[in-house]
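Entry:
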Amino acid sequence: MAGVVSRSVLADQIRDHLLEGILSGRFPPSSRIVETQVARELGTSQAPVREALRALEGIGVVQISPFRGARVRRPSPQELLGAYSVRAALEVLGARQAVPRMTDADVAGLLAYGEAMEAAARAGDGRSVAEADAAFHGRIVELAANPILIGMWRSLAPFSRTYISLVGPGADPEWSAHLHAPILEALRRRDVEGVARALETHFVEARENMARRLAEGDPAAEDAAAPAPVRGRGRPTAEGRA
């Protein structure tokens, strides 16, 4: 039994490692993930790697085909756009629970993420903007201290924090960084409803921006209309940043 448990834990760790690589763009859409190569890099057997890939297939991140192996799946336009609406509802709820609990240090940490986004945008560093953006939203949800909310929010990561939506062709780091200004200003005032309204507006604008990119034929959205696989296996997970 101990061996089975330890292999399961290892598979979970590999799953999270691969998911982080997918979300960061290290494994871009449509790229192959080779079991033997991952196993060799991580110093493990192929069995837990295969289990990790099946878990990622279960949440719609990877497609596994007979004799062709695993490839990173492109989310469909419906999934990408739908994730904004669900995230908005979850983060607004999270903010209403989190802001009254925030210490001065918590607020300062969130403002620091905003400064990091602006600095990265000025440098034209889209990837760093995306990382600070994900950390900012993740921290707000984390501060809500609501495990169910956090779990549901993290399950959306493959569709809302993606190479396509944040650092793919057509992404605008400066626009993305500036979009957070009203949220940051409301946080400075510790205005609970102000933060909630700013988040709602934030996600409406982000969704509209993505819809426009998709409608204009953003190269990052090629093949995005592929149907979603049936999700009967695996557990929703994420890396803890959004």
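The CA atoms of residues 179 and 202 lie 6 Å apart.
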